[in-house]
Amino acid sequence: MKTIRLTMTQAIVKYLSSQFIETEEGIQPIFAGVFAIFGHGNVAGIGQALNECQDKLPTYRGHSEQGMVHSAIAYAKANNRQRMMACTSSIGPGATNMVTAAALAHVNRLPVLLLPGDYFASRTPDPVLQQLEDFSDPTVSVNDCFRPVSRYFDRIMRPEQIINSLPVAIQTLLDPENCGPVTLSLPQDVQAEAFDYPEAFFKKRTHKIRKIKVDDDELNRAVDILKNSKKPLIIAGGGVHYAKACDVLKAFSKKYQIPVAETSAGKGAVTWDHPGYVGAIGVTGSSAANNLAREADTVLAIGTRLNDFISGSRALFSDKTLIQLNVARFDTIKHNAFSLWGDAKLGISNLDECLNEWKVSDNWFKEAEAEASNWNNYYDDITAINSSSAAEGSLPTDAQVLGEVKRNGEASDIVVCAAGSLPGELHKLWRTEQTGGYHSEYGFSCMGYEIAGGLGVKMAEPDREVIVLVGDGSYLMLNSELATSIMLGHKIIAVILDNRGFSCINRLQNATGNTSFNNLLKDCKSIDDGHPEINFAMHAQSLGANSEHVENIDELAAALNRARSSTKSYVISLVTDSHKISPEGGCWWEVAVPEVSSNEKSEQILSSYKESKTKQPY
Fold it and tell me: Which domain holds residue 193?
């Protein structure tokens, strides 16, 4: 057996660069590169290995460990989980900074390979700089924080252990059901240790993501349920995108006259002008989708976790017959659903083959069309510059900003958002015209994802304009990858909606019977001069971006045109209304209300809360 002598990290890099995937676009490397921030726990080991392999596995320098992982995650999502990146950090704060992003990837079922440095396996120099000491267990390090937020975790204590661990890592990253973050913790001395590895271990290997076939009995049961339904509704989730099932879903909906609502992750699976499209569903949903959900007798959920925002905390359609088509068995039985375990594209095609000439009554489809028409009229009004819901001379609303961005955009644009008010407004109001045109991180609702996520999307889709919509709070939390976008030449457009605080949570605070406190800047503890007036345009300029501040909504269109013509990242800021959101659409969401409060409105709010809970199944 032929062998090659390499350090452990040289072997990791060589192995990763030998892994390829077959997709509709052909055969490509699985790993598009590695984001890295070096420290004493990884610069000498994997740092050297990456430097020697730039032609096959390029390294990108991040500015924040959390941010660089967000970018890697966004890249994987934009590639429908077929291509991805790795991220490496030192031990200590570098590693723990990645834990939040790992949790985000875990919640959203997205692949990313994390390679944090670790303590010395020999323990000779213990305690080393940045080493956490557990007085009862010397094997514990801060990297154990990755265990609950990783789909697969291993600490490599000997160089030969990667021969077993790396194939498992790749299998996990490409598994449609178990997909998520993988963490290989790399002690810094083991990184530099050499071993005679079998040459065969590094042969080029081409993978193909397997498709889970639907069980015949489950399929027949689902067909019987649909044939006996009078008012079925489809809920499209992110799994529709990952299974490349958008086209078959659109054809299925049209053929059988079944209206389609969408989750945040599923948005764009059906374009907004499709005849069966009824918009977003749930807490941040349209009145069209939610009205139909209340009236439907059967719900076919495809590729969705059905979290509380979609199910209205289990109160929106808990009394309906539910079928769950999903690659994850864990998800197929949620909400007492009938399981249809399998690939979304195969499952829809199988249903199509079995339903034959059956279709839903014209009356139900016409009702869906009428609801969608009413919602479209509402959209036109709420997003207009001179919206009837906005007082003259008042600050622009989120909806007006979204409408102006859409009116001055292209069908190929990709909008990126994450936490706060914007994902709700975008879920309801953004009109997606092309597949992949909507990128939201709302599973973990992680503030600070937006700028870094926009960079990752642009790296995956360099020929499409990427527009990041972000609130001032999220921007302040994590903006450093804006500098990375400048450094790498991946232009994004960021529109910062400055509502002077955490306005989304301030509204939630008020809705649960509490007075405004510590959310809007004016309600926070401050010196006599008050909170700072932040100049976001100047800040973005200091990071290397082109930028400007616009005084009102009327100036936004021209600014957007300037941004589109810019050759590098461009930031536009404007002050918006911190209180107004689109009043129509949506449904109840359970957030606990204090049973004892000094607020005079609390008793009424608590009574309404208890009444809403009666609509839950238990």
Answer: 3-207
Q: Pick left, alpha or beta for residue 32 (phi over 0 → left; psi -120 to 50 → alpha; otherwise beta).
A: alpha
Taking CB atoms within 8 Å and a gap of at least 24, the contacts of 431-436 are 431/272, 431/273, 431/379, 431/406, 432/267, 432/268, 432/271, 432/272, 433/271, 433/272, 433/273, 434/268, 434/271, 435/241, 435/246, 435/268, 435/269, 435/271, 436/78, 436/241, 436/268, 436/461
Say if residues 571 and 540 touch (Cβ distance below 8 Å). Answer: yes
* Eight-state DSSP code of residue 318: T
| pLDDT band (50, 70, 90) for residue 532 | confident
Note the pLDDT of residue 531: 84
225 pLDDT above the threshold of 90: yes
Strands across the sheet with 546-549, in order? 438-440, 414-417, 466-471, 493-498, 570-575, 546-549
Structure tokens at 617: 């199944």
Better-predicted residue by pLDDT, 596 or 277: 277
CA angle in degrees (0–180, nearest 5) for 614-616-617:
115
> 435 is written with which tokens?
């597949």
Classify residue 264: in a domain, yes or no. yes
Asked whether 114 and 86 are in contact (CB, 8 A), the reply is yes
Indicate if 260 and 343 belong to the same structural domain: yes
For residues 511 and 415, state if they share a domain: yes
Closest by Cα among 34, 62, 31 to 487: 62
Distance CA 345, CA 243 (A): 6
Residue 393 confidence (pLDDT)? 65
pLDDT of residue 392: 59
Q: Are residues 403 and 362 in the same domain?
A: no
Rounded-to-integer distance, Cα 440 and Cα 527, Å = 37
Distance CA 24, CA 411 (A): 23
Place of tokens 């937006």: 450
- pLDDT per residue as tens digits for the range 279-296: 999 999 999 999 999 999
Closest CA to 568 of 494, 495, 461, 497: 494
Same domain, 8 and 35: yes
- What's the predicted TM-score (pTM) here? 0.97
Instruction: Render the burial of 179-209: b for 16+ CB within 10 Å, e for the rest.
Output: bbbbbbbbbbbbbbbebebeeebeeeeebeb
Measured between alpha carbons, how far is 219 from 269 in angstroms, rounded to an integer? 22
Helix (H, G, I), strand (E, B) or coil at 546: strand
The residue among 162, 167, 119, 168 whose CA lies nearest residue 139 is: 119
- The answer to whether residues 419 and 440 touch, using CB atoms and an 8 Å cutoff, is no
66 and 175 co-located in one domain = yes
Within a domain: residue 458?
yes
Q: Which of 301-305, 402-406, 604-608 has the weakest average pLDDT?
A: 604-608
Q: Is the per-residue pLDDT at 387 higher than 80?
A: no
Provide the residue count of the chain. 618
| Position 11, amino acid | A
Q: pLDDT band at residue 356, thresholds of 50, 70 and 90?
A: confident
